[in-house]
Amino acid sequence: MKLNATQLQRQLRDGLAPVYVVSGDEPLLCGETADLIRGACREAGSEERLVFHIDRSFDWGQVLEASNSLSLFAQQRLIELRIPGGKPGDQGAKVLLDWLEHPPADTTLLISLPRLDSSAQRSKWAKALIEHQHSRFVQIWPIEAQQLPEWMRDRLAAAGLHATPEALELLSIRVEGNLLAAAQEIEKLKLFCDSGKLDLEMVQQAVADSARFDVFKLSDAMLQGDARHALRILQGLRGEGVEAPVILWAISRELRSLHNMAHDLARGIPQDKVFASQRPPIWDKRKPLLGRALQRHTARNWGKLLRLAQQADEQIKGQTAGSAWDTCALILVQASGTRLTLDI
What is the side-by-side strand order in the sheet with 19-23? Predict the structure, then answer.
């Protein structure tokens, strides 16, 4: 029987099934799902746990021996089969089919598998694990990029934290779909934030790389008009292994803000009112930086730089030829006030 995560929690409250299967390629979600099952087994009195790591040379006789032997230490026990290759082999398939037909009364079986493709799901052993009345099959699907912010928001809420949209955007970009990294960042933020409310500045301080250079200093160097320093920071970030999407996010965020403010200034709105109308609000210490940057370029030029940022994004995704790092360097130099021709 197939279950999703919510159905699994409900089923575990009603009592243990003889066999559970967790299948998927997302380590964090698979691990947490398996932990739910382990926890339910402990609550049901399972004090003994046996774990078998299955490869091609594995002797399935060990599993048969374990299933037929009585525990000396506990009335209930948990046996785990971890099959990273996704295939139990002929001997393993027979053991699994026999287990489903005659599950030991004192044992819960937990099987961990990678995501099974359509061909594997049509095999006799897999169909049995999915459909048999004694089995509960939990398919773990990856979190898609567009789902990540909502997933992050839910995880933060579960940790007692609330993030502003800007802070959530930075966190989502930083972890780049790596849910294990996301969970680690959230644990760090729990220690960093006493109030439970996270804004962009707090997240920047909490998750900034321990490296000598960081993306926020890069933005400041660009705003200051210091092209040489900005390029040196960019080179340092790249050398420290910071990914291009994180760099581009920091640059693009500043460019969008500058482009919008330059339009307002061109309409005759006073600079202090332009700054006051920005959301999120501009910190006082950044207003001089932004003021000098706005004096260097018109709204039209900031728009050209935004189109360059779009080009860098397409290069990162492999949709356009060229190096996103080179395009980011070009943006930094031009935004800093060095005269270059933008053929866009």
Answer: 2-3, 135-139, 19-23, 107-113, 76-82, 46-53
Is pTM, for the whole model, over 0.85?
Answer: no
Instruction: Give the CATH number for residue 179.
Output: 1.10.8.60
Residues 118 and 81 in one domain: yes
Q: How far apart are CA 343 and CA 110, in angstroms?
A: 60
Which of 124, 139, 154 terminates a domain? The answer is 139
Each residue's pLDDT tens digit, 86-107: 999 999 999 999 999 999 888 9
Q: Do 72 and 122 belong to one domain?
A: yes
Measured in whole angstroms, how far is the alpha carbon of residue 200 from the centre of its chain?
A: 18
Backbone angles phi and psi of 21, in degrees to 5: -125, 125
Are 253 and 133 in the same domain? no
- The answer on 326 and 268 residing in a single domain is yes
Task: List pLDDT tens digits, range 207-238.
Answer: 654 334 467 788 889 999 999 989 988 988 88
